[in-house]
Amino acid sequence: MSARMHEELARLLDEARLEAREIPPLTRAHPTLALPEAYAIQAEGIRLRLAHGERVVGLKMGLTSEAKRRQMNLDSPVYGVLTDRMQVPAGGTLRLQGAIHPKIEPEIAFRTSRELRGRITREQALDACASVFAAMEILDSRYTDFKYFSLPDVVADNSSSSLFVLGTTERPPRELELPALQMVMEVNGERVQAARSDAISGDPVLSIVQLCELLDQRGESLPAGSIVLAGAATAAHMLRPGDRIRLTVDGLGDVSVSVE
Ligand code: OOG
Asked: Does residue 108 register a pLDDT over 90?
């Protein structure tokens, strides 16, 4: 597939996002689309957003839990890119208008304080993380019904990234027992999803180790100062207007958003 085709497919996805319109998965018309090409389309899509004044602030991992892999029927972790315009303030409001079929997921996020590259250990990842937060990611897929897509489709679509919210409690990761944090997500006061944080990659910090390996395959590193979403601990929950969603994580307080 030519660089020109990467650009064309990235534009198709970006227009679908901006117009809140579904399109068929790319692999319908391009059944041989491979993962490296899908990451090239994703990178092209990010370039389009940067051209509109957005700034990269970090990366998200996806499909790092068994619950999510089962929900989406996809089998290996993927990453996507986060920009400043995707961040919703804690306690803020998100508008469903402009979204296609948004869902929300409970996550753990990190902020790095130094660059990470290639094969790293859990200890090296921890050394490079200044803080850990409770977080929620709002996914939206540009594909029909948020279904029937393959791994290359979802990667090309920036791994279904849409918005994210970080909690206001920030802790050094070594102060917590990272794989043993209870996470509870409530909608309008009713508990809808709960899991222990080891649902995420066995230990959320291992999502950073996996992310560095995926980036390395593309000759890239994880820059200092990145926000990293470690991936959802549970299946995603569909959003409806009027919902108030609150995630509580042991030692990391709570974070909420309202839907309008
Ligand atoms: C793919 C992205 C999944 C996660 O945290 O597992 C994801 C999808 O579900 O559309 O972000």
From this structure: yes
Ligand 1 mean position, distance from CA 137 (Å): 9
The finding on whether 106 has its CB within 6 A of some atom of ligand 1 is no
Question: What CATH superfamily classification does 3-259 receive?
Answer: Fumarylacetoacetase-like, C-terminal domain (3.90.850.10)
Measured at the alpha carbon of residue 142, what is the angle toward residues 136 and 147, in degrees to the nearest 5? 85
Q: Residues 148, 73: contact at Cβ < 8 Å?
A: no
Choosing from 159, 228, 247 the residue with most ligand 1 atoms within 8 A of its CB, the one to mutate for a pocket test is 159
Rounded to an integer, the average pLDDT of 170-183 is 97
User: pLDDT tens across 133-147, in order?
Assistant: 999 999 999 999 888
The Cα–Cα gap between 182 and 44 comes to 37
Nearest protein CA to atom 3 of ligand 1, as residue: 62
Q: Where are the domains of the chain?
A: 3-259
Nearest CA to ligand 1 atom 7: 62
The predicted complex's ipTM stands at 0.97
